Amino acid sequence: MAVPEPRIAIVGGAGAISTEALVWMLTKDGNRVVGAYPSFQALHVASRARGTRGLKLHAAIVDADDPAAGPAAVVQLRRAHPELKIILLCEVIAPTVVRCAIDERAEGVVLKSDTSEEAILALRHVLEGRAVMPVGWQAASLKLETPLAALSPREREVLDLAASGMSNKEIAERLTISVNTVKFHLRTIYSRLGVRNRVQAMRSMDQEQEEMQEDHIDSSKMSDGNSAASSE
User: Fold this and answer.
1) In whole angstroms, what is the distance from residue 231 CA to residue 63 CA?
2) Alpha-carbon distance 85 to 25, whole Å?
3) Measured on CA atoms in the order 164, 166, 170, 172, is the torsion positive or negative?
4) What crossing angle do the helices spanning 168-175 and 179-193 adopt, rounded to 10°?
5) Which of 4, 42, 158, 167 is most buried by a 10 A CB count?
6) Cα separation, 107 vs 84, whole angstroms
């Protein structure tokens, strides 16, 4: 069932020309943009200022590429407003975006390269209760099933530092954590990767990088082929 005048909040990208264009586009389509906030905290303050009434939002569009918002804002929005419909706006379907959308049950993901018509249609579908994901979403989701993709951001950070040759003590100093915590992370990493030591973990990383390079080469070939076909 369509909402007469959907109340939308934009989180992240505040002050950017693209955000101003998004506000104009949404308003023109009959939506009421209650505000463009630089972070969840700013939106939360605005909501509390309204007292018990709040902002009465129907949906929130979160800039997944903005460090001030991103996946963290989605987590906070979902905790504060469980029924709110959330759309992620991003440049590419990065693993962090996929993981965030899945874990926090985001209703939609829209690419910044999409046309205004596609973005508006996506919002309408989400407000109607439908999930909207971009082309390539399924393939990106499947990649999360690899052991390395299952690592948390902190675990991946520890693994990257270990791969650079740092000792446990050096990793602990870099991340401002204890050596025991580093050891705990490494044990968890080894368990998830199905390996027993750093050498085997490094091999897993090397294999992933090789596969990514092959995917990039294949994508480039397809792009070149499409360009050649278009010029004929």
Assistant:
1) 35
2) 19
3) positive
4) 110
5) 158
6) 9
pTM: 0.64
Q: Which amino acid is at 119?
A: A
With contact defined as beta carbons under 8 Å apart, do 155 and 184 qualify?
A: no
Token pair listed for 134:
């971009």
For 184-200, b/e burial (b = at least 16 CB within 10 A) is: ebbeebbebbebeeeee
E strand map for 64-166: 85-90, 108-111
